[in-house]
Design brief:
The structure holds two protein chains of two kinds. Chain A is an alpha+beta fold. Chain A is 19% helix and 47% strand. Chain A has a single domain, classed as Immunoglobulin-like. In chain A, strands 1, 4, 5, 6, 7, 9, 10 and 11 form an eight-stranded mixed sheet that branches. Chain A has a three-stranded antiparallel sheet with strand order 2-3-8. Chain A is elongated and about 55 Å long. The longest helix of chain B is centred in the middle third of the chain and has 49 residues. The chains are: A alpha+beta, B alpha+beta.
């Protein structure tokens, strides 16, 4: 009996530790999102609100980078079964500070494109909006069913060499994710 | 394999797997600290495994410690030794671990801090400033060049703008020159071949700054490496026909300079990054060390408990085994858990218990044999007609057989453990016998043989006793054994046999000459008397008369002896005892009445016939009545009482005949010999009356006893078996009594 209770305690402990790694946080929130059919291609417009504490900003200016991922899912809604996933897409940005030029760099990790900004806020504004992001060809969606689109943002702090990322486990908890922002789409 | 062994094996397997898992987690944790990217992702999980191991160890240790405390409080054997060993082992393991931990934390903390000392930080800052200064010089040069281009553009017309831009771009070495409105609309652009064909929009911050009237210059790092210098100046008011234009020129940074700048930037960034992570890095290392420390400490304490248990377990087993042996359980076997000195001790203990068990079994067998012998001896002693009493050195009765009790008339078996003779009656034969024996023993005579004669209520008793000491360890007697026998009856029988022989000889040697003597005397009288004178005739007459009378007297005596000695010729038949008693008493009634003696006859009507010799019984009654009458001779108020009674003796029917008188009774000195021949206190008679009575009684298998009555007078009581069948059992009343004598006449 005592042994069973010890095992149960250990399982609860491990579950708590596992659940604590990623969780919804008020520091990032999907403010708005929508899709538009542009010449047979659905394009996403989304805007998020990101609140970056001073400590995180100091971490970025010290050399760490902030990664922002937009996770986009398109699922076909089914009545008696779980939704069927049609497409998923991740749009990633990386925000860092270039000390020599005293410029903030924003890199689109999907395209490799890089932009630089004179202020942190200008760089943050850049990654806080997605405009005209191609999602899926409209021909791939059936006209009858209803589709659900879900968007969320994941914020994470990275080190330049990834090997030191484990140390962030002991720093501030930057692995935060927003709630899913979802809406329906009828092609 | 038994259940405890399976449990031990399962526990060892679980502990082994857990230990390997923990060790692997520790190694993985060390790998993460070595900047391995692969392990860094697993860092939380590895940490969790270690913490889980920590928790498990804490639980196990708490359980063990709680058990140890319970054992301590419960005074369990070995718990104190175990606790002491755990404490010693634990402290011995804890002190060096804590010492190493303290210094490791110190070295780690200072070592990490040394990585980020001020000199390095300052050097990197200086390098950054230096690089930045070098680039700023170049940026100022390019800004001046851009302003020169703007001056040149203001000299010409708008229509010639593209051509002029291309020429100015080539002259200035710019990669791209763009003329746009303050709103950002591109008016003209000139690009080198290596640059994109499609013109980019001017950044908002460029337009903003230029609109404010300030030139713009910035160093822009490129994604593929290297740098560009972006410059912008207002030219709007200078060009004819236009207002508020912006000139942007982008210049390349030499590759060598860019590479150097990248190196500085990378070093600065990495340092800054690690400097920022210094605190978590230290925390992580210290935590890793702490986890290792705690795991090592807990494992050390658990190992201390485990080791102490292993060491104490054989001792506990030995103590339990010793207690079991002390309580008589010699089947105790201790498990042999090791082959070291403790194992040797356990082996010796098992060997000892085995030897003890064999010795006990041998002792039990010997004891059993002794018990058997003792039982046999007890049976033999119980069946012996000889009395055997064993005494302790202090004369306490150790054992006594039944014959001893019967001889001495006291229950000696009930007096086992008591001082010999103390339980007996004050005036009993046992007390006299004990005194006699004690006097011999007190005199230091421990081995002797003596015949004692005692006077008891039943008459004179002769005891032949032998004493032998029991051998002791140091030469002193371990006790005494008294062996004695009542030889009264035997002596009586011997006397009777002697008297029988005397009677036979008398009958043979004396009776025969009596008749010739009488005849000779009578013939002498007949022949000589007539021829003799009166005086001689009177003398002869008196002499022959005397001879004849004495011969008759001698003849009567000889006949009496002959009667005593003659072999019985039984004519056994049913005899009505009451009737026979009536006839016998009637013969004496007239005689006693004349002497003033009262004859009282009390007969038991339930007494019918018995199997006996009628003539012999009549003689028995005559002898008894004659004895009684003669005892009352000359005594006024004499009284004779004859009683018959049917009774049961030893489960058998017997007929009792008692003849009592109120005469002087038997003299004390002859009480034990009244039935002996020629024992009499009377002036008359042969002294064979009671001897013949006893002879007849014994011939019938009966019993006779004589005693003085409390109120005076003698009493002779006879018991005769009623039937021939129970004549034997009647004799059992006195087992020592010899068979009735059968003598020849």
């Amino acid at each position: 009996m005592a042994q069973a209770s010890r095992v149960a305690w250990l399982v609860c402990f491990l579950a708590t530790m596992a659940a604590g790694t990623v969780h919804a946080d008020s520091r990032v929130r999907v403010r708005e999102a929508s899709v538009a059919n542009v010449d047979g291609l659905y394009e996403l417009d989304a805007a998020i609100t990101v609140r970056v504490p001073d400590d995180a900003r100091r971490a970025i200016e010290s050399g760490l980078t902030m990664r922002l991922d937009y996770e986009i899912e398109i699922a076909r809604v089914r009545r008696y079964a779980p939704d069927a996933e049609v497409a998923t897409l991740v749009q990633s940005y990386e925000l860092g500070y270039h000390a020599l030029s005293q410029r903030y760099l924003v890199r689109n990790l999907n395209t490799g494109e890089q932009q630089d900004f004179g202020t942190f806020q200008a760089a943050l504004d850049r990654v806080s909006e997605v405009r005209g992001l191609p999602l899926i060809d409209s021909s791939l969606l059936d006209p009858e069913p209803t589709y659900e689109l879900r968007v969320r943002a994941l914020l994470d702090l990275r080190t330049t060499p990834d090997a030191l990322a484990w140390l962030l486990f002991w720093a501030d908890d930057w692995s935060v994710a927003s709630d899913w922002f979802s809406w329906t789409l009828r092609p | 394999m038994d259940a405890p062994s399976l449990n031990r094996a399962a526990s060892a397997a679980v502990m082994g797997v857990g230990g390997l898992l923990w060790l692997s987690a520790l190694l993985f944790m060390a790998q993460t600290a070595q900047n391995s990217e692969q392990f860094s992702r697993l860092h939380p999980w590895i940490l969790m495994v270690n913490v889980a191991g920590l928790v498990v160890l804490v639980g196990l240790l708490a359980t063990k410690l709680a058990q140890l405390v319970r054992d301590w409080r419960g005074h369990v054997i070995g718990s104190r030794l175990k606790a002491r060993m755990v404490w010693i082992f634990g402290v011995l393991a804890t002190l060096p671990i804590l010492l190493v931990y303290f210094f490791a934390v110190q070295f780690l903390s200072r070592g990490i801090d040394s990585w980020f000392n001020l000199e390095i930080r300052q050097s990197l800052d200086d390098a950054l400033v230096l690089s930045r200064s070098a680039l700023e010089t170049r940026m100022r040069e390019h800004l001046n060049a851009t302003e020169a281009i703007a001056e040149a553009l203001m000299q010409g017309s708008t229509a010639q703008l593209p051509g002029r831009l291309e020429r100015l771009r080539q002259q200035s070495g710019a990669l791209e020159i763009t003329v746009a409105t303050e709103g950002g609309a591109v008016i003209a652009v000139s690009k080198g071949l290596s640059h994109d064909v499609v013109p980019d929009e001017l950044p908002g911050e460029v337009l903003l700054q230029v609109r404010q009237g300030s030139p713009f210059v910035s160093l822009e790092p490129q994604a593929e490496g290297g740098y560009l210098i972006r410059t912008a100046v207002p030219i709007g008011s200078a060009l004819p026909g236009s207002s508020g234009l912006v000139l942007q020129a982008i210049y390349p940074v030499p590759e060598r300079l860019g590479a150097l700048a990248d190196t500085v930037q990378a070093a600065y960034q990495q340092f800054g990054e690690k400097d920022y992570l210094r605190r978590p890095l230290k925390a992580s290392f210290i935590l890793t060390l702490t986890v290792v420390l705690l795991l090592s400490l807990l494992a050390a304490w658990y190992g201390a408990i485990f080791t102490a248990q292993r060491l104490v377990q054989p001792i506990q087993d030995l103590v339990k085994g010793t207690r079991a042996v002390a309580q008589g359980d010699l089947d105790t076997r201790l498990p042999l858990t090791s082959h070291d000195e403790m194992g040797f001790l356990v082996h010796s203990f098992n060997d000892m218990t085995k030897r003890l068990r064999r010795a006990r079994e041998a002792q039990q067998r010997a004891q059993q044999a002794a018990e058997t012998e003792r039982a046999n001896l007890a049976v033999i002693l119980a069946r012996l007609s000889t009395g055997v009493v064993s005494l302790e050195p202090d004369l306490r009765v150790r054992t006594a057989n039944r014959a001893a009790s019967m001889i001495l008339g006291e229950d000696l078996e009930a007096g086992v453990g008591q001082v010999f003779g103390e339980a007996g009656a004050v005036d009993g034969m046992l007390r006299e016998f004990t005194e006699a024996c004690r006097s011999r023993l007190a005199a230091g005579d421990v081995e002797w043989r003596e015949q004692f004669t005692f006077q008891s209520g039943g008459g004179r008793r002769v005891i032949m006793c032998a004493c032998t000491p029991l051998p002791g360890e140091d030469g002193t007697p371990a006790g005494y054994v008294l062996v004695f026998d009542d030889i009264t009856v035997m002596l009586q029988a011997q006397r009777e046999a002697a008297w029988g022989e005397v009677a036979r000889r008398l009958a043979h040697e004396i009776k025969n000459p009596l008749t010739p003597i009488r005849l000779s005397a009578e013939r002498m009288r007949h022949k000589l008397l007539p021829s003799m004178n009166e005086k001689d005739a009177q003398l002869l007459d008196r002499g022959t008369e005397t001879i004849v009378q004495q011969v008759e007297a001698m003849k009567e005596m000889v006949n009496a002896f002959s009667e005593y000695a003659r072999a019985p010729r039984f004519e056994m038949a049913d005899v009505h005892l009451n009737r026979l008693v009536t006839e016998a008493t009637d013969l004496y009634r007239a005689q006693v009445t004349n002497r003033g003696v009262t004859l009282d006859v009390r007969l038991d009507p339930s007494l019918e016939s018995i199997v006996a010799d009628r003539g012999r019984l009549r003689q028995l009654l005559n002898n008894l009545l004659t004895n009684a009458v003669e005892a009352l001779e000359g005594q006024a108020g004499g009284e004779i009482r004859v009683t018959t009674r049917r009774s049961v003796r030893a489960g058998e029917d017997v007929a009792e005949i008692a003849v009592e008188d109120n005469g002087p009774g038997f003299q004390r000195e002859v009480m034990g010999q009244v039935f002996d021949p020629y024992i009499t206190t009377k002036t008359r008679g042969t002294g064979l009356g009671l001897a013949i009575v006893r002879k007849i009684v014994e011939e019938h298998g009966g019993h006779v006893e004589a005693e003085n009555q409390p109120g005076g007078g003698a009493r002779v009581r006879i018991e005769l078996p009623v039937s021939e069948h129970n004549r034997g059992p009647a004799l059992q009343r006195d087992a020592r009594r010899p068979e009735p004598r059968r003598e020849r006449a």
